[in-house]
């Protein structure tokens, strides 16, 4: 089976930097994805890491260490609109991939 | 480009009744997913289609849930009969290929079973 651990809640102020960690235990691991979901909204894709290292996309960066079964999402220059739930998800399988999601981290950004 | 469409957006039924959800994926996307998201949890994959074939339905409660994707485009998910624990948001997602790297989600159907 698959097991993912991420903090349930994180709070920060506008302009700050926050890191959301994700550790996983799974077989057939192929990559780690991150999704953002606002209350009542649909999950939206943020990033995907298949190789070790840091991927940067604007204010958001994602990191993966396959040897440590660990990854994180880094959000910089936080804005109020970043208040949302953030899910890490492991991709299982190469050709026919499937995603298994963690329980999510609720990020609250204060003014 | 139009996104993933789902209907209805909300549904309230009593236990033991039946319900069906509809999904229209992004045009040209071969892979379609149905997820169940219970309040406070992450989406849980129920079934994955590649064109009109089932890739994975290992987490679909087949005694009450069924899904089909005729002609490899639209899909329907049915629950018959519904139980209280089926109350959740049912999300449909699609991706261009089968790798599942980047999935595009629809707005979901919020189901309440009384």
Give a structural overview.
The complex is a heterodimer of chains A (111) and B (114). Chain A has 111 residues and is mainly β. Chain A has strands at residues 3-5, 9-13, 18-25, 29-37, 44-49, 53-57, 60-65, 70-75, 84-92, 98-101, 105-110. Chain A is built from no helices and eleven strands. Chain A is globular. Chain A starts with a strand and ends with a strand. The mean pLDDT of chain A is 95. Chain B has no helices and eleven strands. In chain B, strands 2, 4, 5, 6, 9, 10 and 11 form a seven-stranded mixed beta sheet that branches. In chain B, strands 1-3-8-7 form a four-stranded antiparallel beta sheet, with no helix packed on it.
Which structural class fits the helix and strand makeup of chain A?
mainly beta
Multimeric organization: heterodimer
Question: Low-confidence parts of chain B, pLDDT < 50 over ≥5 residues?
Answer: none
- Average pLDDT reading of chain B: 94
Strand content of chain B: over 45%
The SSE order of chain A reads EEEEEEEEEEE
User: Could you give the distance between the termini of chain B?
Assistant: 37 Å
Q: Catalogue the unreliable spans of chain A.
A: none
Shape summary of chain A: globular
Q: Residue share in helices of chain A?
A: under 10%
Biggest interface, which chains? A-B, 24 and 25 residues
Mean pLDDT of chain A equals 95
The profile of the biggest β sheet of chain A is: 6 strands, mixed
Number of strands of chain A: 11
Percentage of helical residues of chain B?
under 10%
SS field, number of helical segments of chain A: 0
What general form of chain B does the structure show? globular
- Helical run tally of chain B: 0
